[in-house]
Design goal:
The protein has 701 residues and is an alpha/beta fold. Helices cover 36% and strands 16% of the residues. It has a nine-stranded mixed β-sheet, with helices on both faces. Strand 8 (335-339), helix 6 and strand 9 (364-369) form a beta-alpha-beta unit.
Length: 701
């Protein structure tokens, strides 16, 4: 079998994916922030310049290989087996000398572009020669081993059909892809098997509004892969698509105590509640829905939040019904894992009602705070929806919001109660944990966290690498991997430029911003980046919605209407977000604060370099390529993986944006190698899951 021994022509090293968890003195679990990403290396002698372009060189090689294939096939048909082998060997040596001679003259910037085309040519030639020799020499034995290639390496990216310009092309089904199932064998199996029950308001993709749903799904699945029993309890919202739930079935009905005011006193009624089971994205789920007429309004409406129900009432009912179900139909779980203010009251009810009465004795409670923005303010009479008097918790040492002392009415904070009553509290990145303890990010709750510092941990989130898998993504017109990144992203960039009606130009850097349009996300910086990108010769696509979207809608319909380089899409679409990550060169995340952030991880998974503001999880996941710890952009040692700026001013954003655009335009070979490198980083849930299992174990001691 004919092949080109590429390892003898180009010095290569495997892309190393390195993540490590460290346990700091402040009990923060983290990936090692300082990551070395070793990628393709080239010999120093190959830095000499070549006057001809990479395209011309590859055409020459292509012509040579085609001639070699034709010549060898003819020889094979006319000569005995031994002569065919000699001919193959001769042609192989000839081609090796030609390519070796050319590569000695190639500068470093062109190598990345040349390498993939050479591999494709060599693969095609090998297949042609293999077919020719096997026709007449079926019994010939060869001792030369052919290189392994993936199916994506042979894909003709030029054959991708372009969408019609200025259409909603993302709504057109592209193809059917079977996602690779999670490899349970790849996860270490824990011997101390635990039963973990999550209680949450969101779960992706069934009931997803923000990152909370993604985190719960990814964490639940990763811990289950380690051998633990994991279930997730969430509301059976009226608006969810039941078709997404596998094996949906009614399990039982239970009575749930629910309080209400009658004649100025707390009265209790039992709400008939239906319990349903099923599977969502590989996660075992338990869905809860009230059936009694006077509670049927709960979880009704066309949206997860903001429906036709009182959210305080609804989520207090969720907490009580989840505990009632666990008490009635299950043995006590090992861990009850709560998320955000919506389920914080379950920790209070568990210890003061169920555990106090000798029920669910073995469980310990873990609370994860995904965002300190909402403390879950609640009046005492509102808390009665849980079936328990709110006055029980109007105590400074329990859940009372001390800011409201002397106000009318005084209020409690459900999140504060959750922090105090839980055995362990986590947040979603080490940097955000430090910011909430020391930097004022938690506001008045910072003193509560400081008082509970010993049980407070920061664990960096992961992303769902099954959902976000460029090698098997049905949202894209083609698959791609690190090896095919350069050619594939060029084709996908053209695909998106065409569909959005932008100028089709591979030399214009494509910057995207996929974000909720709320003040936290740095709206003034996004607005400034749009203007600067247009001024500096790039392209910008915004995909997002939120109460801050009005100004951007005005820009879309006014200043930037039909602009050849700017598209502002004030909406959200999951398929389009995947397409944008795959097509883009840069992903902007200028958040004023960001507990963790998944956007920058998804971007890198798809070969888009992140440009972020240094805060929270963004600081834990992105190291500037030009920083001291990131390495110099022009050196051989590349430690950085994106661009970072400090502060909140437009000028500071300008500096990072200018550096990124200059690097894209002036160092294309280096830029392509960086895109491949960031694709190789491991942002899966494997390491975070190990951190959470450690927290579970510590909580049970």
């Amino acid at each position: 079998i004919f092949y080109v021994n590429m390892s003898s022509l180009v010095g290569t090293g495997s892309i190393q994916q390195h993540r490590a968890a460290s346990h700091s003195s402040s009990s923060c679990f983290s990936r090692k922030r300082f990551q070395r990403v070793a990628g393709t290396r080239v010999h120093r002698r190959e830095r000499e310049t070549l006057s001809s372009s990479p395209t011309v060189m590859c055409q020459s090689v292509s012509e040579t290989t085609t001639t070699a294939a034709t010549s060898t096939a003819t020889t094979s048909a006319a000569a005995p087996s031994q002569k065919s082998n000699e001919a193959l060997k001769k042609e192989n040596e000839t081609l090796r000398r030609i390519i070796s001679s050319m590569l000695k003259k190639v500068d470093k910037q062109t190598l990345a572009e040349v390498k993939q085309e050479l591999l494709s040519i060599a693969t095609a030639t090998a297949e042609s020669l293999d077919s020719a020799t096997s026709t007449t020499n079926a019994t010939t034995t060869t001792t030369t081993e052919a290189p392994t290639t993936t199916s994506t390496a042979a894909f003709d990216y030029a054959s991708i059909a372009m969408p019609e310009p200025n259409t909603e092309f993302w709504k057109v089904p592209l193809r059917s892809v079977t996602a690779a199932p999670p490899d349970s064998n790849a996860s270490p199996q824990d011997t101390d098997r635990m039963h973990v029950v999550h209680i949450t308001a969101e779960l992706a993709p069934l009931a997803k509004v923000g990152g909370l749903g993604d985190v719960v799904t990814g964490l639940a699945r990763a811990v289950a892969q380690r051998g633990h029993i994991v279930e997730t309890i969430l509301p059976f919202y009226e608006c969810i698509d039941k078709a997404q739930i596998e094996n949906l079935r009614h399990e039982c009905d239970i009575d749930v105590p629910k309080g209400f005011q009658f004649d100025g006193k707390l009265s209790i009624e039992n709400v008939k509640t239906s319990i349903h089971r099923g599977t969502i994205s590989g996660c075992e789920v338990i869905l809860i829905r009230p059936e009694s007429q006077n509670s049927q309004h709960i979880f009704k409406g066309g949206a997860i939040y903001g429906g036709g129900y009182n959210e305080i009432e609804a989520y207090l009912y969720l907490c009580r019904s989840a505990l009632e179900y666990l008490k009635t139909y299950q043995n006590s779980p090992s861990i009850i894992h709560l998320h955000e203010w919506q389920t914080s009251a379950a920790s209070m009810l568990y210890w003061d009602v169920y555990h106090e009465e000798g029920l669910l004795q073995d469980a310990r409670v873990v609370l994860t705070i995904h965002n300190m923005d909402n403390p879950g303010e609640c009046r005492a009479e509102e808390f009665e929806a849980s079936g328990i008097s709110g006055e029980t918790y109007m105590d400074i040492d329990k859940a009372m919001d001390e800011r409201t002392i002397g106000h009318n009415p005084e209020r409690m904070s459900l999140l504060k109660g959750g922090i105090i009553y839980s055995n362990a509290v986590t947040t979603v990145s080490p940097s955000y944990a430090r910011e909430t303890l020391e930097g004022g990010a938690a506001g008045w709750l910072g003193t509560i966290l400081a008082a509970n510092r010993e049980k407070y941990h920061g664990i960096l989130n992961g992303i769902d690498t099954v959902l976000w898998d460029p090698a098997r993504d049905a949202n894209l017109p083609c698959d791609f991997t690190e090896e095919t990144c350069i050619e594939a992203k060029a084709a996908l960039k053209k695909y998106v430029q065409t569909g959005l009606g932008l100028e089709v130009n591979p030399d214009k850097p494509l910057i995207i911003c996929v974000s909720r349009l709320v003040p936290q996300k740095g709206l003034h910086l996004i607005r400034h980046a749009i203007d600067r990108t247009a001024e500096w010769g790039g392209q910008f696509v915004l995909l997002g919605s939120g109460h801050g979207g009005g100004d951007f809608q005005g820009l879309a319909e006014g200043e930037y209407k039909d602009h050849p380089d700017i598209r502002l899409l004030i909406m959200y679409n999951e398929t389009l977000s995947h397409l944008l990550f795959a097509a883009s060169d840069i992903t902007l995340v200028p958040s004023l604060f960001e507990p963790c952030g998944l956007t920058q991880m998804c971007a890198m998974r798809y070969g888009s370099l992140p440009l972020v503001r240094r805060t929270g999880g963004l600081a834990d996941t992105v190291v500037d390529v030009d920083s001291k710890e990131g390495g110099n952009a022009g050196s051989d040692q590349l430690f950085g993986n994106g661009y970072v700026f400090d502060g909140v001013s437009e000028g500071e954003l300008d500096g990072a944006l200018r550096r990124a655009l200059d690097a894209f335009k002036g160092r294309r070979g280096w830029w392509s190698s960086m895109q491949q490198k960031v694709m190789g980083l491991d942002w899966s849930w494997s390491q975070p899951a190990a951190g959470y299992v450690d927290v579970y174990r510590a909580a049970r001691k």
